[in-house]
Specification:
The structure is a homodimer. Chain A is mostly helical. Chain A has two domains: about 5-70, Winged helix-like DNA-binding domain superfamily/Winged helix DNA-binding domain (Arc Repressor Mutant, subunit A, Orthogonal Bundle), CATH 1.10.10.10; about 90-125, no CATH class. Helices cover about 55% and strands about 5% of the residues of chain A. Chain A has six helices and two strands; from the N terminus they run αααββααα. Chain A has helices at about 10-20, 25-35, 40-55, 75-90, 95-105, 110-125, and strands at about 55-60, 65-70. The first copy, chain A, has a two-stranded antiparallel sheet. In chain A, a hairpin with a 6-residue loop joins strand 1 (about 55-60) and strand 2. In chain A, helix 1 (about 10-20) crosses helix 3 (about 40-55) and helix 2 (about 25-35) crosses helix 3. The radius of gyration of chain A is 19 Å and the shape is elongated. At the A-B interface, helix 1, helix 2, helix 4, helix 5 and helix 6 of A face helix 1, helix 2, helix 4, helix 5 and helix 6 of B. The structure holds a DNA duplex.
DNA sequence: GTCCTTCGTTTACATCTGTAATCTTTACTT
DNA sequence: AAGTAAAGATTACAGATGTAAACGAAGGAC
């Protein structure tokens, strides 16, 4: 599978647009990003090219302007990114970190219910304590 | 405040050790990291130096070997890191992302209870739906 | 058919990161 | 005091990233 870890924050912005639109021309991406960032046209083009090289995007070149489409699913990208970050955290602190995110994010009632039910389920097999592994020789 | 965003994954590993020990000599850090990574001594020293330059660490140089101490709190670092990542995500997908992490993390019963109660609280003011903001000119 | 405008391609360049060797200074041994 | 070992400082170097200008080709306007 494609390694999403190599997607930078800037590239992520580009992908979000293409994921949301399903597909997009460079102009569409540029128009949107020029509103939300201070990037120049050329910068955004570079990002698109790099995303192609990394196999996150592909261009349909059968007609002009090219139409760019994602080669990875947004869900997968998110999944990999968050798990990647959490892999770096002290496992003892993860619960707290999750609490932090929850407090800082807008979440719908439905999603909240889902989360609660995931947690209730998880509680059945949850340990009483999670030990810090920061000094251990884990792989 | 110090910008934790500039802390790389490799540097993060170093910090975890120093946070956990409270303070440490370079030898202590090196001994531990040589077990959990394949990094050479020199590499780890470079990381320590860079962490000093970035003001994440400070060295007490009053005696040899130097004693390195964190200049930022682990809690703050975690807080900033996770929020930073979540700022990049489509806000509509955050609930799902959180569910993902929960499923993939070991969390203690106590932490689970805390999370459930945070969620129950949050539900009171939660919106029915969260709209995708990927195409918007947000700052 | 020629010119201009878009869009795509190439090139650029400083900084950051991963990864480390080497040099230098201190401290410990004998 | 001299030699060696340990720790800190300097230097290295390729690849990634942020940021963008400049160049070339293709299509539309006249």
């Amino acid at each position: 599978m494609t390694e999403i870890e190599n997607m930078t924050k800037a590239e992520w912005q580009v992908m979000r647009i293409i994921w949301t639109l399903g597909q997009a021309t460079s102009k569409e991406v540029i128009d949107i990003l020029e509103k939300k960032t201070s990037w120049k046209t050329a910068t955004i083009k570079t990002l698109i090219i790099r995303l192609q090289k990394k196999n996150f995007l592909t261009a349909d070149e059968s007609s002009r302007p090219y139409i760019y489409k994602p080669l990875i699913e947004e869900t997968d990208a998110i999944h990999q990114s968050v798990n990647n970050l959490f892999d770096s955290l002290c496992c003892m602190k993860k619960g707290n970190a999750i609490g932090d995110i929850i407090e800082n994010s807008a979440i719908s009632k439905g999603d909240i219910d889902d989360l609660i039910s995931i947690l209730q389920d998880k509680k059945k097999e949850a340990p009483d304590e999670v030990e810090c592994d920061c000094l251990e020789a884990n792989l």
